[in-house]
Amino acid sequence: MKIALLAHPRHPIAAPFMGGMEAHAWHLAHGLQARGHDVTVIAAGDSRVGTALHPLMTRHYDADLPWHRFHGTDRLNAYLDDSHDRALQWIASQGFDVVHNNGLHRFPPRLSRRDRMPMVTSLHVPPFDALLRAMRDSVAPWHQVTACSQTHLAEYWPDGAPASCHVVPNGIDMGAWPFVPQGQGHAIWAGRITPNKGTHLAIQAARRADVPLVIFGSIEDQAYFDARIRPELSTDIRFGGHLSGGELAAEYGRASVMLFTPQWNEPFGLTALEAMACGTPVAAIRMGAVAEVIGPSGSYAAPDGHDLDAALLRATQVPRADVRERAARLFGMDAMLDNYEALYRLAIANRNAPASPADFAAIELPPAQVTIARAG
User: Fold this and answer.
1) What string of H, E and C letters represents the secondary structure of the chain?
2) Which position among 7, 205, 270, 317 has the lowest Cβ density within 10 Å, counted as fewest Cβ atoms?
3) 230 shares a domain with 153
4) What are the backbone dihedrals phi and psi of residue 282, each rounded to the nearest 5 degrees, phi first?
5) What is the pTM of this model?
6) Do 218 and 319 share a domain, yes or no?
């Protein structure tokens, strides 16, 4: 298949990855290419991918219009609208069989609905108003939708999702996250360092449990890091920087427990899964889909983290082989790719499926009134 893989452009799709969305897009592109598909990634122009790349914009927008300063402003919204409009016009000219939309913009799903563009939209974040309205407006047999957990899907359709909506859990290459049978007695925290990831709660819990902690990740919110994280660093609470995948896998394996501390309705929890693949159990704040993914491979604490220290100590008792087995059985890369390929074929096959004209009411169109070319 000739596949357009549309990514979110806040950060480049490049290792070391800023977060789970970037890692997902990179590994998805490479996994599809390895299966013989013709893949073009449409993403920030400073992305580094081993496939064809079409720039959605010259460089990732956070470099020029940082999300923490410009989120919700007319300036950023106009920039993203223009970038997506131009990218969709380019997509329309290329004869793609299917578009896999992994972005957060409202134009792609609505264009799929209006112009019968075969598309799979994979949701990666909790619903926000513009995206939620676009998804509900865009239900169609040729527009298949995935969420990464049952909890996540129910946030978008609490009264029951349409037949074109599915759960496809995130998958990882288990070979990239090798099993280590014994940790070295310390805890690890990894992810984007920003308030909604709750890094400060991991520090507090490790201190109360008297367990050393090493923190890894990109500093997304410098003010948060300077105010809440940097002053707490010591010989027992260390910041190890932003690591490549291989380096991070080694650190997961050395740890005896991972602390996972979301302060939002976590749709999945990719870093927790990576640690699990290495055999490292997880002490997690129970929010969103956390328990759905981790299951018995860890222990849980309240959203405010007041009992996370006790969860940390309980999690260290979980057998590491059981943790690895769950990750391999439920969240392998091949299962994710199999599911996506099946949905691509379904979206293409349903291109001409019946749809009620009333369903097209109130569809917002991008300025250029793009008409998507149909392959085949």
Assistant:
1) CEEEEECCCCCCCCCCCCCHHHHHHHHHHHHHHHCCCEEEEEEECCCCCCCEEEEEECCCHHHCCCHHHHCCCHHHHHHHHHHHHHHHHHHHCCCCCEEEECCCCCHHHHHHHHHCCCEEEECCCCCCHHHHHHHHHCCECCEEEEECCHHHHHHHCCCCCCCCEEECCCCECHHHCCCCCCCCCCEEEECCECHHHCHHHHHHHHHHHCCCEEEECCECCHHHHHHHHHHHCCCCEEECCCCCHHHHHHHHHHCCEEEECCCCCCCCCHHHHHHHHCCCCEEEECCCCHHHHHCCCEEEECCCCCCHHHHHHHHCCCCHHHHHHHHHHHCEHHHHHHHHHHHHHHHHHCCCCCCCHHHHCCCCCCCCCCCCCCCC
2) 317
3) no
4) -125, 130
5) 0.89
6) yes
What confidence score (pLDDT) does residue 150 get?
Answer: 95
**Quick count: other Cβ atoms within 10 Å of Cβ 321?**
10
The closest of 370, 366, 369, 373 to 77, measured between CA atoms, is 366
Tokens 């106009």 -> residue: 78
- In angstroms, the CA 78 to CA 75 distance is 5
Question: In the block, which residue shows the tokens 């359709």?
Answer: 157
CB 279 within 8 A of CB 323: yes
Is 61:79 a contact under the CB 8 Å cutoff? yes
Q: How confident is the model at residue 9 (pLDDT cuts 50, 70, 90)?
A: very high
- Reading the block at residue 93, the tokens are 């000219």
Q: Are residues 35 and 140 in the same domain?
A: yes
Q: Which domain holds residue 30?
A: 2-171+333-360
**pLDDT at residue 372, as a whole number:** 31
| Cβ atoms of residues 254 and 184 within 8 Å | yes
- Give the CATH number, domain containing residue 93: 3.40.50.2000
pLDDT of residue 356: 58
- Asked if pLDDT for residue 217 goes beyond 80, the answer is yes
Q: Which two tokens stand for residue 305?
A: 């983290």
